[in-house]
Amino acid sequence: MATPVVETEVVRVRVAGKVNLALRSGPRRPDGYHTLSTVFQAVSLFDEVEASWADPGEVSVTVLGDQAHLVPVGEENIAVKAARLLAATAGADRPLGASLVIRKAIPVTGGMAGGSADAAGALLACAVLWDLDISPDELRDLGAQLGADVPFCLAGGTALGTGRGDQLAPVLSRGSYHWVLAFSDGELSTPAVFGKFDELGLGNDHPEVPAEILNALVSGDAPALGRCLTNDLQAAALELRPQLGQLLDAGNELGAVGAIVSGSGPTIAFLAANESAAVDLSVKLSSEGMCRSVKRVTGPVPGARLVV
Ligand code: C5P
Q1: Which candidate, 307, 304, 305, 306, places its Cα nearest to that of 149?
Q2: Active-site annotation, residues
Q3: What Cα–Cα distance (Å) separates residue 88 from each residue in 81, 102, 142, 171?
């Protein structure tokens, strides 16, 4: 990768969260993962990852934001793991260190790939800080070692994910979609939701996203997209958190053209017909008091990018 020369000693990267417009899953595989067919869309809810030099071999992280207390800050932090993996792989000839600061806006364990976004942000920020000669493909391969959603968080936009969700192909998408996100209190762990999915025997031997999703995206037709949003994990998430069903119903009654649990939840993504409908829906949903907070976003947006 041609890394830009950065004059300052701090490198800042902005990285978006995602919603899955369609998520079809096979049964659990021997490696514990599930074969997926999913359409990701990156949306305008961004974490920021800042990297600056630290003593050789030292990698630390500070997390800022309302939910910072929910994020581990030791070696188990996925951004720390990302920096260490990058240093071990691409910087073997010299000891490298980084001090990371993450400003979190993507909900923690919310089904929007917040941790994966931070890993993607740390990979890019450290690659630039350390002036490494690494290609986007190599960065993506490192990302896939860190988590199934990390390659998409690097890429952004709209993409079809297969394999564990880490094999990406671009998807043609016209226009911009207006979403209202409803954040719930408490987390839903992805392994727990997949566990419930297994228990309910919901795995499909040939998971494939519906063609209607791809057609709706090409035509830029929000109501058509809203009608075919689909998530195989939704039943499992609702089983674990039944009150999400009432939130989905409320959004539908208040005029959303589509409503879906985002990934493994508990965030719910409501699709609005246009910007003014999204404003209207977000105001009404907020006043219902059924969730922690509500946020309007648009998608698709790019993946991990330097902030200059
Ligand atoms: O890859 P990542 O660490 O983000 O995945 C978190 C968890 O989600 C995995 O440990 C696994 O339980 C589940 N998962 C899965 N199949 C996938 C992706 C994630 O079972 N394709």
Answers
A1: 304
A2: 18, 149
A3: 10, 22, 11, 33
Nearest CA among 279, 305, 261 for reference residue 107: 261
Are the C-beta atoms of 194 and 234 separated by less than 8 Å? Answer: no
Contact assessment for residue 252 and residue 259, using Cβ atoms and an 8 Å cutoff = yes
pTM for the structure as a whole: 0.95
Amino acid letter at 299? G
Q: What is the mean pLDDT of residues 80-88?
A: 97
Q: Ligand 1 atom 10: the closest Cα is on which residue? A: 191
Q: Report in angstroms the alpha-carbon separations of 211 from 19, 22, 218.
A: 18, 10, 11
Q: What is the 3-state secondary structure (H, E, C) of 51-89?
A: EEECCCCCEEEEEECCCHHHCCCCCCCHHHHHHHHHHHH
**Cβ(113) – ligand 1 distance below 6 Å:** no
Q: Give the CA distances from residue 48 to residues 33, 64, 251, 308, in Å, rounded to whole numbers and listed in that order.
A: 28, 10, 29, 12
For the packed helices 243-253 and 275-288, what is the interaxial angle rounded to 10 degrees? 140
pLDDT digits (tens, 9 = 90+) for 206-244: 999 999 999 999 999 999 999 999 999 999 999 999 999
Among candidate residues 273, 46, 274, the one with its CA nearest the CA of residue 156:
46
Atom 4 in ligand 1: residue holding the nearest Cα? 147
151-183 pLDDT, tens digit each:
999 999 999 999 999 999 999 999 999 999 999
